[in-house]
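Example record

Each entry pairs one chain with its bound ligand, nicotinamide-adenine-dinucleotide.
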Amino acid sequence: MEDSLLIPEKKSETDKNFPLINELVNMEHEQLVFCSRPEVGLKAIIAIHDTTLGPALGGVRMWKYRSENEAIKDVLRLSRGMTYKSAISGLNLGGGKGVIIGDSSTEKTEELFRAFGRYVDGLAGRYITAEDVGMSEKDMEWIFSETKYVAGIPKSLGGSGDPSPVTAYGVYMGIKASAKKAYGSESLEGKRIGIQGAGSVATHLARHLQKEGADIFVTDIFEEKANRLAKETGASVVDPDKIYSLDLDIFSPCALGGVVNDDTIDHIKCDIIAGGANNILDNEKKHGEMLRERKILYAPDYVINAGGLINVSSELEGYNERRALEKAARIYDTTIDIFDYADRHGITTNKASNILAEKRIQAVGKVSTIYSSKSQISNREGEIYYKSRC
Ligand code: NAD
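Structure tokens for the complex follow.
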């Protein structure tokens, strides 16, 4: 999330002698772990941002970073984002992220992922990993063979499988909450809704919208994908660059990030922007303000696309799809609360959601100072040998 409000104001002046530790202080991280195993080609970094609410959960991505600094910046930024996403979603999880430095098309090996799994295991549950960009189900299975601290594993291994149906359901709830705020009714019947992308999330979303009688427009850079979805849901297909200038009630970006930017914002004609893509606003602060001035209601992306995280986290308590969908349905109320808070304080909706997430972390953090049986840590024989925070 470039120029994100999630990047806090600098807390301390850069100390030339300790630039990295300073960065952790400024970004409010608890821990940064560098993993190196040259024999298997592993260069990885794990960032744990905040564990006030629970273990730090966040995917691991494999990416050919151009420099070490780029990888560090990415893992710090992404793990911080996970803290906010979990907090606003009411989950008892903190924020973490892993990055494996390497080319995901040529450098994948079993031993590389198993080595990464061992580093995750060494963190003893402070970090729970999951699939992210550049990773496949098979790679996750290798990690899983070395550590139980993995979520989002395939259904065949007892996990939750593809998260996109629950993500799409959460986005649908976020769209209905936005309609309630903008039109006074959550009904989407007859509403002109433009969906950018015809992938996994978009497909499940379009099915919900079709059932409600919405007038759907869909686009994809692969025309056949858009055609297939249109055929199934009765949507109209539009060219990828035409979606921005279409007269819509609701624009739902479900493809890629940064689509509300300096080039597109003046063309967008709608009342609501609410989609499943991550980082919809190119510059959260600037474009969030511009949308507010134009009276376009923006449903913060990390709030309404949290169904995927909710789905994955449900695995930790024994996966049950109905329960995951019930939790994802709460995105409706959370989105309304954010809109109301933004209205009351005259701020953007994205800023409001960041503030509400921080408030929850601070409030729940106060509770964990009270001693309870949860503060006890047992050894392997089940004897209590350490009591934390008492
Ligand atoms: P996907 O790869 O299945 O679908 C993305 C689709 O967007 C593809 O069909 C692709 O061809 C299309 N696309 C790419 N660029 C485009 C463009 N310029 N114009 C139109 N179409 C374009 O991905 P997905 O799983 O459906 O995820 C969609 C978005 O939602 C991503 O930003 C992802 O990060 C986010 N997201 C997904 C989940 C999930 O559970 N899958 C969870 C949270 C967030």
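The radius of gyration is 21 Å.
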